[in-house]
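Materials and Methods. Structural model of Sugar ABC transporter substrate-binding protein. The 451-residue sequence of Sugar ABC transporter substrate-binding protein from Paenibacillus hexagrammi was retrieved and submitted for structure prediction as follows.
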Amino acid sequence: MKRTMKQWIGVSTTAIMTVTMLAGCGSSGSEAGKDQGGQATATAAATANAKPFAGKTISLVTANHPWADAIKPLLPEFEQETGIKVNVESFFEDQLTQKLTVQFTSGSATPDVFMYRPLQEGKLFYKNGWLQPLDDYAQKAKDYDFNDFSKSAIGSTTVDSKLAGIPIITEQEILYYRKDLLEKAGIPVPKTLDELTAAVKKLHDAKNEMYGFVARGQRSPLVTQVSSFLYSEGADFTNGDKAVINTPEAIKAFTTYGTLLKDYAPPGVLNMSWPQAFGIFAQGKVAFLTDANSLYKNLTDPAKSQVADKVGFAVFPSGKAGSKPYSITSWGLAMNTKSANKDAAWAFIQWASSKDTVLKTQQKGNPGARASVWDNPEGTTGFPAELVPIIKESAKAGVDHDRPTVISVGEARDAVGEIVQKVMTGETNIQPVADKANEALQAIMDKDKTK
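The predicted structure was written out as tokens:
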């Protein structure tokens, strides 16, 4: 990105030199011309290292996240080249959302730039007028190469056909498995959901505390992970303005996920979110797990996992519609519409999401959204070699959301999660449950239109 920064500086320098030289043309006499020529040379030298935003200060609010830890040591470089001072504050996720909501509701001009979760609060923030559309900035930025971002990642940060933020952290749902167990049993890595079910049944041995499958079972958390089952069967949460979680394809997906957890998961799965699911897999008690690739270190770090050297990664298994895992932007950077420093704010976003900076943050294990960085061997050093092709393949086939894309996300997740939990607790006739949940989701969507 240094090259782009210098181009901005070069434009500023050229403008100053032009004005100075024109002033020189208006002087008379050889000495005057000589003095003006010398002044032009001196001015050019003095401004060669000029900073295009000298004296500007922007505020940046981040989550307590590894990406923020990776970007902070790089800030002096950005400040040195642009003249922009970046004041940073960091908060836990829930505190971050609360802080942003309070400040934006009051019409605050700060923060100028902030981290946000596009699929959790993006639609609400945009609807309230808190997210500055970035389409013109991104499309016109020289050497930014906006088309280098994955299509699904941009889809996650797009609201009502407007670019509401820039992706900085992506994730896809993948299949984790125990390589040693599959090898011992002579089972190939499942490529379809039917093959997964068969393998889970074969490896399940509850009497010896070996369970075939685990995933999120809590009502709201499970929704993001059942989404890949949904898409791979040819279904979705919504179709335009209509809720569609009661179709035959949707019911099949919910039933598959719920049945795997009901029959082959460890005890207590109804209360499991990702920490509990990963925790019991790491104890060596589970054969298969489906969840986000971004959480892989919980299984591969010997300090956290008893099976660190036995974990395999695979693309999400295919259903009727093929393999269609979610491939989303879990965290993005956005600009406050009330910011008084929009050009400086964009300069930061452009730098933070540039190829050079993404390379550096991705080397620290932060999965970015730029295809060129994933294709660069230097950009994959922060990830297990076996995981990299899985990420790349999943990103190409992935769907840009992992939950209903509505304003009232929490209510919508509860409505969907109810279906799966009924399967998990033994309900055999799911159609009435799905019909009722679909009505609830439709009511939520209709209500959102009035907000």
